[in-house]
Write a structure and sequence with these properties.
By secondary structure, this protein is mainly alpha-helical. The protein contains three helices and no strands. It has one domain (about 15-60).
Length: about 60
């Protein structure tokens, strides 16, 4: 099924590592490689909030 970009409800809080544009946005935002971005998303689940927090924590540490 195609990703509906007009649907900004519950889907807004999730990161889909399988969607190239979402992975690219996440990795650019945090200055990560594809591999590191995927690992962080997998570890945090698909919660955007948790993935962002984990990426920020990894930057500092």
């Amino acid at each position: 099924m195609a990703d509906d970009k007009k649907n900004v409800g519950r889907d807004r809080g999730r990161v889909a590592a399988g969607q190239a544009y979402e992975l690219n946005y996440f990795k650019r935002k945090h200055g990560l490689t594809d591999d590191r971005a995927r690992k962080i998303i997998k570890e945090a689940g698909n919660s955007r909030e948790k993935a962002n927090a984990l990426a920020e924590k990894r930057k500092k540490g």
